[in-house]
Design a protein that fits this description.
By secondary structure, the protein is of the alpha+beta class. The chain folds into two domains: 98-182, Phosphorylase Kinase, domain 1 (2-Layer Sandwich); 189-432, Transferase(Phosphotransferase), domain 1 (Orthogonal Bundle), CATH 1.10.510.10. Helix content is 39%, strand content 12%. It has helices at residues 2-16, 30-62, 74-85, 98-105, 146-156, 189-193, 204-224, 280-285, 290-306, 312-318, 322-331, 349-362, 373-381, and strands spanning 113-116, 121-126, 132-137, 167-173, 176-182, 228-230, 239-241, 247-249, 256-258, 266-267, 287-288, 398-399, 431-432. A five-stranded antiparallel sheet has the order 1-2-3-5-4, with helices on both faces. The protein has a two-stranded antiparallel ribbon with strand order 6-9. Strand 7 and strand 8 (247-249) form a beta hairpin. Helix 9 (290-306) runs antiparallel to helix 12 (349-362). It is elongated and about 100 Å long. The protein starts with a helix and ends with a strand.
Length: 434
């Protein structure tokens, strides 16, 4: 027992004795070094991930045009990964701050004002990075309100097509409600089409390209997009033109999503739309469907061919709507008289007559016999497709009172007063049949 105690005592002394000089075990422990390395690595990875999440959120808030200024290399790959993990929903459309928009538009200066529609004024702006934008500012006097603003933000974020205008971001700060779009230098179709001087720039090939582009955009909304959409306010002022005069449909504040594949018929009991473009079932009963959009497209097509507006001024001068005049000249075989004189008859007669024929098919009174947009596009681009005979268009719904247009310079074409570009920008709710 005593020997065992001595042996145990010697072992304890050996365990507590200092290590000899030069022994590697004296200054370090492999386990501690590993823990330090892992700690440093975790910290680096965590900080990198935190930075990438910050960049990703910044890009969501400020849009893709600023993303390249804060990310590069590996972090951009991580941003793409984050985008794939969290796909952008309607509410993920970039939210822009008011200060940036005020700086871009010069505090909404008159010099930057592009025009005004039913939503409110539109301003040109230049962001700090040099990108040009168009800003729609909800007016306090606008007939459209918060619901239409929210509808456009929620809807257009899900729609991507070359013939639809691209929404870059939005802002709802203080009392301002703003939509930020890509800037299109040629502005709207009505600014060209109904201006006696500018419409000379719309040759036949340009007009045909515009007609086809609008048809493709409407076909996408009705049949090819993930959401099936009825626009409900297709008109010349809601078609914008890019630098190459390609059309882009805009203004989705009144658009509605329908759930069934047939394009559903909806009766809201509320008449919305623009005088001159509304189908009779919309004007009289508030019933809308894809076929009411087809009617609006037909009116717009006839306006592009004639260079005249199907509005109050035409009704006042001719005692009938533009579509009734088109029908009369069609049955009398004087269709050439309907074409815009500024074209100087330098157009393909076959192509023009096909467009004319399709326009009359679109404005038929019975929505069931109007073609779908897929049929419309096929008829427009096909050289050999036999078209059905159009039926007589409806008597046009008439406003209770038609405001007299303000005094403007006489046009070179007819000697009549030129209508303001905004005459068709008003949504009406009170109508009666003529």
């Amino acid at each position: 027992m005593a020997a065992a105690g001595r042996i145990g005592g010697h072992r304890r002394l050996l365990d507590t004795a200092p290590a000899p000089a030069g022994d590697d075990r004296a200054g370090s422990n492999p386990g501690d070094a590993m823990r330090i390395m892992v700690g440093v690595l975790v910290t680096v990875v965590f900080c990198t991930l935190l930075y990438c999440i910050y960049c990703w959120r910044w890009r969501k808030r400020n849009g893709e045009y600023g993303a390249q200024t804060i990310c590069s290399g590996f972090s951009c790959h991580l941003l793409s990964l984050l985008d794939s993990l969290w796909p952008r929903s309607s509410s993920d459309l970039p939210l822009m701050d008011l200060a940036s928009i005020l700086a871009a538009t010069g505090n909404f200066s008159k010099a930057n004002k592009l025009g005004e529609g039913g939503f409110g004024p539109v301003y040109r702006g230049v962001l700090s990075g040099g990108s040009e934008i168009a800003v729609k500012r909800l007016s306090a006097r606008s007939r459209q309100g918060a619901a239409e603003f929210r509808n456009e933000v929620e809807l257009i974020a899900k729609l991507q097509h070359r013939n639809l205008v691209r929404l870059l971001g939005w802002c709802a700060e203080r009392d301002e409600k703003l939509l930020v779009y890509e800037y299109l230098p040629n502005r709207s179709l009505d600014a060209f089409l109904f201006d006696p001087r500018k419409r000379r720039h719309l040759g036949w090939s340009t007009r045909q390209n515009i007609i086809h582009g609008i048809a493709r955009g409407m076909l996408y909304l009705h049949e090819d997009s993930l959401l099936k959409v009825v626009h409900r306010d297709l008109k010349a002022s809601n078609v914008l033109l890019d630098v190459k005069m390609n059309p882009k449909i805009s203004d989705f504040g009144m658009a509605k999503i329908f759930k069934d594949e047939s394009g559903g018929i909806n009766n809201t009991g509320r008449v919305v739309g623009t005088y001159g473009y509304m189908a009779p079932e919309v004007a009289l009963e508030g019933v809308f469907s894809v076929k009411s959009d087809v009617f609006s497209f037909g009116v717009l097509l006839l306006e592009i061919l004639s260079g005249q507006r199907n509005g109050a001024l035409y009704l006042e001068e001719h005692h009938q709507s533009l579509i009734r005049g088109a029908w009369r000249l069609w049955i009398e075989d004087h269709a050439v008289e309907f074409m815009d004189p500024s074209l100087s008859r330098s157009f393909s007669r076959e192509e023009a007559w096909r467009c004319y024929h399709v326009g009359l098919l679109c404005v038929q009174e019975d929505p069931d016999v109007r073609p779908t947009m897929s049929s419309v596009l096929l008829m427009l681009i096909s050289d050999h497709m036999k078209l059905p005979e159009p039926a007589k268009p409806p008597l046009f719904a008439k406003l209770r009172s038609i405001p007299s247009p303000p005094a403007l310079p006489l046009t070179a074409r007819t000697g009549s007063r030129a209508p303001p570009h905004s005459i068709n920008d008003v949504t009406i709710t009170t109508i009666e049949p003529r």
